[in-house]
Amino acid sequence: MSYAYLFKYIIIGDTGVGKSCLLLQFTDKRFQPVHDLTIGVEFGARMITIDSKQIKLQIWDTAGQEAFRSITRSYYRGAAGALLVYDITRRETFNHLTTWLDDARQHSNSNMVIMLIGNKSDLESRREVKKEEGEAFAREHGLVFMETSAKTAANVEEAFINTAKEIYEKIQEGVFDINNEANGIKIGPQHSPTNPSLPGATGSSGSQGGGCC
Amino acid sequence: MDTSDSECFESADEDIQSDEELPKKVFNKDCQNLLKPNPNYELEASETLCDPRTEESKITRQNDASIKLEIAVKGDNESKNSNKASHSSSETEDICQVTSKINTINVIDDSKPVLSRKENVEGDLCNIKQVEQETVKKSRSCAKTKLGSKISKDTVKFEITPEKKKSKVVEKEKLHKTENNIISSVQIVENEKLKVDNDDQNLWDDEELDWGTETKLESDAKHNISKDNTEEYKFQPSPSSNTPQFNPHIGKKSENQSDNWGAWGSWGVSVLSTATQSVSSITSQLTNVIETGLGAADPEELARIDREEKRELKESLGKECEQDIPSEAPSVGFGLGNLVKLVENTGNKVISGGLDTLETIGKKTMEVLQEGDPGLKKKRAFLKIEQNKPVLSQILREAKERAENERNISEEVYMKKMKNYETLFDDHHGLVHLEALELLSKQCEIKLRNLQNSLNGEQYTEFLETMDQIKELCELPDEEEEDQISILEIREKLKKAVTEMNVQISYDKLMTNWEESEVWLNALNMNICDEKELHQQAIETLAQLTSLAMEQFHKIGELLLIKDRRSTADEADSLVQVTTTLTALIGIAAAKFSEKLNSKICESTNKEISGLITNVFFEAANSSSYIQDALQLLIPVLQVGAV
């Protein structure tokens, strides 16, 4: 489970646009039509390989409900990438994009890569938002755009991996300071010769853990 | 002739019972390949005896669904016992009892069909068809000429009785017998012919020549045999009798060979054994052909051989037909022998041909190799250089050792990784929940600081007091309760605390997780379980429990923040309860695992084990500190609610 980098992603967007389903499709490769409302934030993780480097994507799947808005804002900090999701069958979710985008820009670092995602592309018959509109919005705000279907898994991998590629490129370009964890990028644990059976070797890499004994 | 024939029949009949079973297996394959029903027909037909009115032909499908056509001729001649159906060529008593299952049919058929059929089974269906056709024709012709018009349809009852009814059929047969009915089972396709042959070769004489020519013409004859036969026999349907129905099913069902060898007992056996041998030899030869044929055998050659085979087969058939051999066995043997030889010869030809081809290839290869390198000097020199290098096997052995070492190292690394508490804690999202809680906490702190900065004078001091009060509320009791609390109590306490906090979370998952671990521990066979495995499980359990605890703390924080009406004191009290309870649970878990590890230490004073136990307690302390830290992180959340 060693990885070269860890990227923190955050998924945002109105409630019911399929954020949790996208995550489930990406991490578990399955689709769950009925999903419990997300409380605060849920997590998922998956390893991907870019440029023959193992990269762990740690995905924060936030609650879309208005009630959690203030809470989820605090999670934006330290995300390297964000998936801004709307539902192509519900125009209001598209209309709220500006609010979400402002929120994201305000509470995260400026280099965060944002991917605009029009989900539920399998429901073509109920489409309310044209693909061109999504493309236009993305162009206007400097986002990457993609239509996905968490149900059919169409473009789901691509959405997550393309975002990771973009982040990786930014690292290569030196845009991201990988030593600053506020950027949402962590360098993976080196092959530390820790012997777990010896006490003391398990220092707390967790922010608060250990230390008290 | 009469005497010899009849003798043969009688002797064969006597053996029927004992030999019935034998043919089955041998012929199963054959049957499968036979598209057509090869019913055994007991053709009892004497020209003189055949009285259309009295004749009854029944097709009974015995055990194996072979069709037995019994033509019971209720005729003037009642003296014939069906069992002993003596067959004489004489006109007065031409009672042919041809009892043949599909299989037997073939065998009986001059043994030509048998052989040919087996061959066919192995490789050539066409042959089978031809043979069958031939037999059919023979039978037809026989029927025409000798038995011919006298068997009327009405009298011939073709009853296809399922296997279950076999016994009944038998009974019926017996009845017929007693009534002096001549039961002839006519295997229309081939059996008839067999019978005729067996019974009386003379019958065939006239027709033999025709067969050869006619066989080719009748490719479809098989399926129609039954109809044709009936027509040719000129059976005159009687009101009560069914027209003969030879269903294709019959053929299929005939897979199971009937035991009914009829009168062919010992004779059949010998034929069978010969046939079996020939088949096996053919099989092996065919295999050889196939093998050698890869790349070597010329398809045209094979085709030619095949044609020859067929031709010779026909010839031999013709010969046998032509020969009026009183006793059948010799002729059968002769035919079989011929066929076997034929096949062997063919096989040999093919094999030798294949070998020749191989030889040619080898010569050619050598020529190419030696081209421009007489005596292969260069190539030998080239190979010698290789000899100076280490032996290949040695290299391989070294490589294998290296690979094994690497694997061992990687396994060790893997094991270390597996045992790493931090990794496990991360894997179960404990770390990220803690991180998220931290973010929440920071957010609340910022909020509080902003508020604090905006306050002045009394408000400010009041605010600070409140903050301190909440902090005090969240202080954990110095001494943890030493007295062990049960899992049940823990569950109760957690439930109560959650209710007081008035948030929708549950510790069921966490408790279930522990209970499962406990079950695993209790069921553990200490003799089998390795201490490292046990230690790994302990770390895993601790990491899992702690992760779940983190998740709930995180959720509590989130839910408290969006809660409408806050009651900070209750919340703080509940959180303290939760924290102490959870740390107690961690303690119980660690103790339980250590206890198990300790039992290992008694068996073998292993220093490693005590190290493992220490580590379990260390990680348990780690878990507890995570839990207590989580509580600390929640304090700002509580404070925000209080102001």
Question: Topology, pairings included?
Answer:
The complex is a heterodimer of chains A (213) and B (643).
Chain A: E1 5-13, H1 19-28, E2 41-50, E3 53-62, H2 69-76, E4 81-87, H3 91-95, H4 97-107, E5 113-119, H5 131-141, E6 144-147, H6 156-173, E7 185-187
Parallel strand pairs in A: 1-3, 1-4, 4-5, 5-6
Antiparallel strand pairs in A: 1-7, 2-3
Chain B: H1 2-19, H2 22-33, E1 40-42, E2 55-62, E3 66-73, H3 102-108, H4 112-122, H5 125-147, H6 166-178, E4 182-185, H7 191-199, H8 201-217, H9 221-233, H10 248-253, H11 265-293, H12 299-322, H13 328-370, H14 377-388, H15 392-419, H16 421-427, H17 430-454, H18 457-473, H19 487-501, H20 508-522, H21 531-561, H22 568-603, H23 607-642
Parallel strand pairs in B: 1-3
Antiparallel strand pairs in B: 2-3, 3-4
Helix pairs in contact in B: 1-11, 3-4, 3-7, 4-5, 4-11, 4-13, 5-7, 5-8, 5-9, 7-8, 8-12, 11-13, 12-13, 16-21, 17-21, 17-23, 18-23, 19-22, 20-21, 21-22, 21-23, 22-23
Organism (chain B): Cryptolaemus montrouzieri
Biased composition (Acidic residues) (chain B): 1-20
Biased composition (Polar residues) (chain B): 237-246
SSE pattern of chain B, N- to C-terminal:
HHEEEHHHHEHHHHHHHHHHHHHHHHH
Rg result of chain B:
47 Å
Note the overall shape of chain B. elongated
How many β-strand runs of chain B?
4
> What's the overall average pLDDT of chain B, rounded?
65
Termini separation of chain A comes to 28 Å
The tally of strands of chain A reads 7
Helix content of chain A: 25-40%
Structural summary, described in words:
The complex is a heterodimer of chains A (213) and B (643). Chain A has helices spanning 19-28, 69-76, 91-95, 97-107, 131-141, 156-173, and strands spanning 5-13, 41-50, 53-62, 81-87, 113-119, 144-147, 185-187. Chain A is of the alpha/beta class and 213 residues long. Chain A is globular, with a radius of gyration of 18 Å. Chain B is mainly alpha-helical. In chain B, helix 3 crosses helix 7 (191-199), helix 8 (201-217) runs antiparallel to helix 12 and helix 12 packs antiparallel against helix 13. The model of chain B is unreliable at 1-128, 141-167, 178-259 and 324-329 (pLDDT under 50). The interface between A and B is large, with 37 and 47 residues. Chain A: Belongs to the small GTPase superfamily. Rab family. Chain A: It is a lipid-anchor.
